[in-house]
Specification:
The structure is a single chain. The chain has 273 residues and is an all-alpha fold. It has 2 domains: 30 residues; 214 residues, MetI-like (MetI-like fold). The chain is 74% helix and 0% strand. Helix 6 runs antiparallel to helix 8 and helix 9 runs antiparallel to helix 10.
């Protein structure tokens, strides 16, 4: 009796939890931006939107090139990147050791977590008046604001990831006679480092969202300061140029962290978030 051949399952566009190919991911990524700018262009060309409030995309791109090559906007971009990198680096230097310790030792969590949890619910912009009183109008209040906006969330994420390290690894190390700090250094930290890098990548986006808020306070340099000057004169094209630059920089940093994750942890490829 001949066995009937089972029909092949048809590949569908929407599949639950099934990864897409690089080709499909690339096409989708380009297509969504083509659709976005096409709608923007059509709306501007047809007169559906006020040109003063939403200039055409080609006008915004022209303004962006003028800002960069004719009006020293590149220096503002450099200053903003410096502020983000410095503040986020300082936040990471605090959050990584403290988060790992809180996730490893319940006694430390019992002390620090009530304080950290309370600060997570305080909006960072509410500190602007007192930061100006304490540090003046220089770089320090901007860096501190960016630091406060990210450090407590990053501590909590790292603590939670540390708690998820498999207990069998710790128990095996203890059975072999390893001490507490040796286990933290040689077992827990290497196991949690991939997730720490993911948490840093996620929270770096928060730093960029606070950038404009930090730079509109008594600042004459940076992307946010440029956007506030443009607002006074109703230069919407310059404001949109600043928004585009922040988006491009944020995406670039995100891709940098993703590439770093691939390079440092190649055995986890396909499992990153």
């Amino acid at each position: 009796m001949s066995q009937k051949q089972l029909p092949r399952s048809k590949s569908r566009f929407l599949e639950l939890r099934r990864p897409v190919s690089r080709r499909q991911a690339g096409i989708s990524a380009v297509a969504i931006w083509v659709v976005f700018f096409s709608i923007w262009f059509i709306a501007s060309a047809a007169g559906w939107v006020n040109d003063l409030l939403l200039p055409a995309p080609q006008k915004v791109l022209q303004t962006l090139f003028e800002l960069i090559f004719d009006r020293d906007f590149g220096w503002d971009i450099t200053i903003s990147v410096w502020r983000v990198v410095v503040s986020f680096t300082l936040a990471s230097l605090v959050a990584i050791p403290l988060g790992v310790m809180m996730g490893s030792f319940p006694a430390i969590e019992a002390i620090a977590n009530p304080f950290v949890s309370a600060w997570r619910y305080l909006p960072a912009p509410s500190f602007i008046p007192i930061l100006l009183m304490w540090f003046g109008i220089g770089e320090m209040p901007k860096l501190v604001l960016l630091f406060i906006g990210v450090v407590f969330f990053l501590i909590t994420l790292i603590m939670d990831h540390t708690k998820q390290v498999r207990g069998e690894l710790i128990e095996t190390a203890m059975t072999l006679g390893a001490g507490r700090w040796t286990i933290v250094r040689t077992v827990i930290l290497p196991a949690v480092m991939p997730n720490i890098l993911i948490a840093m990548r996620q929270m770096l986006a928060v730093t960029w969202t606070y950038l404009v808020i930090a730079e509109i306070v008594a600042s004459t340099t940076g992307i946010g300061a440029m956007m506030m000057r443009a607002r006074r004169f109703l230069h919407t094209d310059e404001i949109l140029s600043g928004i585009i630059i922040i988006g491009v920089l944020g995406l670039s940093f995100d891709l940098l962290f993703r590439s770093l994750h691939h390079w440092v942890f190649p055995y986890l490829r396909g499992r990153e978030r």
